[in-house]
Specification:
Strand order of the largest sheet: 8-7-6-9-12-17-18
Oligomer: single chain
CATH class of the largest domain: Alpha Beta
Radius of gyration: 20 Å
CATH architecture of the largest domain: 3-Layer(aba) Sandwich
Number of helices: 13
Helix content: 40-55%
């Protein structure tokens, strides 16, 4: 996607300096900073500290981390050590382990002398595949938006609601939940997007920044406003992303997604999840019982970063001193609340049968 007319991915390989460069998302939407990721500790910090964030982007970043590890020491022992070092950074998003497993499986049979080059090539492939997956999700989601637009009076916008940031900043490009929005905007379909703030890290501000750069009309709302809007017929469809989806279609996403799904269900609003296939965990069935939920630093809840009146970035405490903060980063939306899953292969029911029909090879391999 573009920032002020210049195309960016959320990460890219600097072939001149032989280093991965990323948009450091900790400072957005107020400051745009690009930093190199040059050491294994840099990779771990980038993922854990959310310099990069979003399941697909975490996976792509981890693949480049494995490439660096192979460039430093291509032994089996170092491969396994790098896998373990990166895998522990974020426990919930399945793309991280998916990318690490894919790299290790591809590199293990190779002679050590060939592993560094092969690992970098594979990291490029994983990044490029993510872009294409998300582009195709956008095309399938566009069809759903067209159906809604066809039923509305001429010129009236399709009103979408999204939670967190499942945009191009959370992927290598296009985004998952935002990809249909960008496709619809480019197709000339009138849109208006309700953007949840998504406490505690206010990642909705990243979505608002993205949509604004692309010219998509939007309004930034509090997390608790969505149900009210649905009650008053002001939401035509909800689209969110996902960090891990079970084989039966339970969806694990940013905390607060479950409440949006409940409100949508109660008000008859379609609730769709944009789902790249690497985010499906075929080994898990019951999301509530089986998916580990990351508990992040309480300071993300007790403190807020933003622009000060003087124009600089600052952090303020919003709770009474001594108040304990709890910070579960994700929740699970049961498949019964999900209208459908928008994948790169099409739209399906949120069920084991629906996913298996679209991805029979993956489903069979997991049996």
């Amino acid at each position: 996607m573009k920032i002020d007319g210049t195309h960016y991915r959320s990460l890219w390989w600097n072939s001149e300096n032989h280093v991965l460069e990323i948009i450091d998302q900790r400072w957005l939407p107020h400051e745009f900073r690009v930093i190199p990721v040059a050491t294994m500790q840099d990779f771990a910090d980038a993922i854990y500290q959310m310099r990069v964030r979003g399941a697909p982007l975490i996976g792509a970043t981890a693949a480049y981390g494995m490439a660096l590890a192979m460039a430093e020491d291509a032994s089996d022992a170092n491969m396994d050590a790098a896998w373990a070092f990166l895998e522990k950074t974020r426990p919930t998003a399945i793309n991280l382990r998916w990318a690490l497993d894919r790299c290790r499986a591809a590199l293990r049979p190779l002679p050590e002398a060939d592993r560094a080059a092969a690992a970098l090539t594979l990291a490029h492939e994983i990044a490029d595949e993510d872009v294409e997956i998300n582009r195709r999700i956008g095309e399938h989601g566009l069809a759903l938006i067209r159906e809604i637009a066809a039923r509305k009076p001429a010129g009236e916008p399709v009103r979408l609601l999204t939670h967190c940031n499942a945009g191009w900043l959370a992927t290598v490009d296009w985004g998952t939940a935002t990809s249909p929005m960008y496709h619809a905007q480019d197709a000339g379909i009138p849109l208006h997007v309700w953007v949840d703030e998504t406490r505690p890290r206010n990642q909705g501000a990243l979505t608002a920044w993205e949509l604004g750069k692309h010219g998509v009309p939007h309004t930034y709302i509090t997390d608790n406003a969505g149900g009210h809007l649905m009650q008053h017929g002001m939401v035509d469809m909800v689209i969110t992303g996902t960090d891990r989806t079970t084989r039966r279609g339970d969806v694990c996403n940013k905390i607060g997604t479950y409440l949006k799904a409940l409100a949508a269900h109660d008000n008859g609003v379609p609730f769709y999840v944009a789902l790249p296939s690497p985010t499906i965990d075929w080994t898990v069935s019951d999301g509530v019982a089986e998916i580990p939920i990351e508990e992040r630093d309480a300071q993300e809840v007790t403190h807020v970063q933003g622009l000060t009146d003087g124009g600089g970035l600052g952090t303020v405490q919003v709770t009474p001193t001594g108040t304990q903060g709890g910070n579960p980063a994700f929740d699970v939306t049961p498949n019964r609340l999900v209208t459908g899953l928008i994948t790169e292969r099409g739209v399906c029911d949120a069920s084991e049968a629906g996913l298996s029909d679209l991805f029979p090879n993956f489903a069979k391999a997991a049996e």
